[in-house]
Amino acid sequence: MSSLLITVGVLPFGAAHGQSQAPSSAPDRAATSLPPVTVEAPQRRQTARSTAASNSKRGRVSQTSRTARPSTTVEASSQSQGQQQLPATPLNTNVVTPSASRLGLTPREIPASVEVVGAQTIREQGYNTMIDTVKGATGVTAGDAPSDVSFSMRGFQSDQVNVTYNGINLGPTSFTSLNAETFNLDRVEFLKGPSSLMSGQGAVGGAINYVTKMPHTGPITNEAFIGFDSFGSIRSGYGSGGSTNIKGLDYRFDISGAKQNGFIDDTYAKNLHFSGQLDYRLTNAFKVFGAAEYKDYNARVYEGTPLVPIAFSGPFATSGIVSGTKVSNYNGTNLGAVTIDSRSLTTNYNVLDNHKTIKESWARGGFEWNLTNDVTLRSQVYNYNASRDWYNNEVSAFNAATNLVDRERFFVHHNQNLVGNNTDLTWNSYLFGMENRLVTAFEFYHLDFSRPGAANYPADQVTLVDPVRGYYGLLSTQRQTATIDSFAINLEDRLKITQNFALIGGLRYNPFELDRTSTDVSGVSKAGFPYSASFQPVTGRIGYTWEALPGLTFYSQYATASDLSAGSIFLLEPTQPLTLTSARSYETGVKNLLWNGLAEWTFSAFDIERSNVYSAQAGQTLNLAGKVKSQGVEFAAAARPIPEVKLWGNVAYLHTRYADYDFAGGSFSGNTPPNIPAVIVNGGASYRFLNPGWFPVELGVSVRHVGDRFSTDANTVTMLAYTTADAFAFVDIPKSSIFPTVTDTRVTFRVRNFTDAKYAAWSNPFYPDQILLGAPRSYEVGASFRF
């Protein structure tokens, strides 16, 4: 393991390691929401004399930066978009990450663990979906359960990890997450640990921000992609962007589609994703933008594979997937020692008329205005609409008394409408001669959620092998609604005590009100409804960064977060305490860019405690679970020792357990929450043959290891550790006379899980009698073009 930590790194990076950058210690320019700026790899330490001379000039440089024409920020930000495909540092820490700080800082300048997976990494690693991308980050696991897309990070999962889109929080992650394609994405940002300061309620384990591709200023560029896999899936995409003939008007649009066939019988997911944006600079100091987005998702889904007694499966019992003993949460029969039956590895126990459909539409617009050389005002209004429909058999529980699989249906529909505004004011100044940047932000949103759901739950039994799947049956519905009105004031500040030492802190005051209704099939309000509850959480963080040596930065922080104690706005009943959880975190770490920008590593250690916790149980119920405590360390590194070689990898070690989780008849204190592994490792390497006598070829391999996880709070069934490995090859075809307009063609060959490992990927605590299996070996071929 020690050799792995030394030799591998987290994210591959391209040939742009030598591009020009600005020193990380250089005086700051005005923050901008028009992302990424690049920063220079640290230079050799100067002598005392040259340092003094440099410092004597620094004031003049800083003053020049502060008195530059307002157009500097706008123009530089716009043009920086084109650099996203070629990150300048191994861990992609050269980009401004607005989801991690409104101060316009790069990950190396933020006193927190921040990761960025850029478009080039997404392309090279073959991250076709958002789930694929998330799994490559340090210490993150994911499960694409049909009812929701769930993530775990730093010992917390589901609604305790916020998912935002272009920095906007849509609501509870378990309701709003969608496993869409990645073609339309510019990058994915990860902010680890409690982070309500940035993304509001729910960010206890951290936040994941998906950023769509945006316009750049410059010549128009186009890209296209098409790919196939051995399951019969097909993916394609086309995008275009650049400057138009109208001065100051830039555009970007992308459209992608996919039909992804699953390895489970009769499963697929169809995706259509359109995104577009216009940027218009009316003056050098004033820019407006408008953006629109649409997603259409339609799937036939797999809800899980039942755990069965080893005694029943006999010679068909598998090893290496699960272990332990089980008493069915659904029918109460004792299964004894359990396994996954090899005859059920591709069986779909869902009904024939199952479906999951989601339609989403976005509209965003706003402006960025450099009021003075030191003051910038930004504002964005947005409207988000979603319609979601789940119509499935969701329970598949083996019954030891009948040796059949008990099934039960579930239906729910969402109508969601979200309107809001984010406005912030950035002020650069000097405080007692020290550089200071203050951002004051105001956020408002109004969320309407209606949720017609099942009032009856048709049930039946089928055989484990070759089940007669049947149809959903009769459906009657009842209705729930939730409305949230939220307002937040954020203050975030960085004070540079010296050029190498900065204090960074923030505070968020976020009063909000929840109004709920719930009616039965006859439209009569249920007991305790309607009701209203109001909350006034205050969260924040305080920390420092210290660049002790050029490129070597130490940091520490204290951060807090809060969220609804039930996690879901529809699971908390009026008879339960209407309170918020509280979470606090201590974190310290090191970030180091070295070898003239050819290598980079980060290390973090953290201690998180979340109080007033509810835990998911079978049958859409919750238990009061006291506290969750999580400690851990994370390490990530990447290097390019010679131009032909890339090395990358990361490792996370977690110790997460419940505290004060006592109930009538027992206690789960000391147990680990579901889906939380103690160890997660990603690593890989590639070699590029620059002069093979044909076309440039790159060969690579990546490995992922996930440790043991438990399927329920009781910790009686273990989803065993697994390791998967992928291999890939790129062939780059240069511009030719046959296709003179195509400047860059890449043909990709990929084998996923080439050892054909059988493993448990995830468990839904609401359905603890079944687990979701991981995909077996598959093959892919694809081609991408730029012109």
Can you describe what's shown?
The strands form 7 sheets. The chain has a 22-stranded antiparallel β-barrel. It has a 5-stranded mixed β-sheet with strand order 3-9-10-7-8. It has a 5-stranded antiparallel β-sheet with strand order 17-19-18-40-39. The chain has 8 helices and 45 strands. Mean pLDDT is 85; it is low at 1-87. It has a single domain (2-786), classed as TonB-dependent receptor, beta-barrel domain (Maltoporin, Chain A, Beta Barrel). By secondary structure, the protein is mainly beta. A hairpin with a 7-residue loop joins strand 43 and strand 44. Residues 16-95 are annotated as: Disordered. Residues 328-753 form the TonB-dependent receptor-like beta-barrel domain. InterPro entries: Beta-barrel_TonB, Beta-barrel_TonB_sf, Plug_dom, Plug_dom_sf, TonB-dep_rcpt-like, TonB_rcpt_CS. Keywords: Cell outer membrane, Ion transport, Iron, Iron transport, Membrane, Receptor, Signal, TonB box, Transmembrane, Transmembrane beta strand, Transport. It is found in: Cell outer membrane.
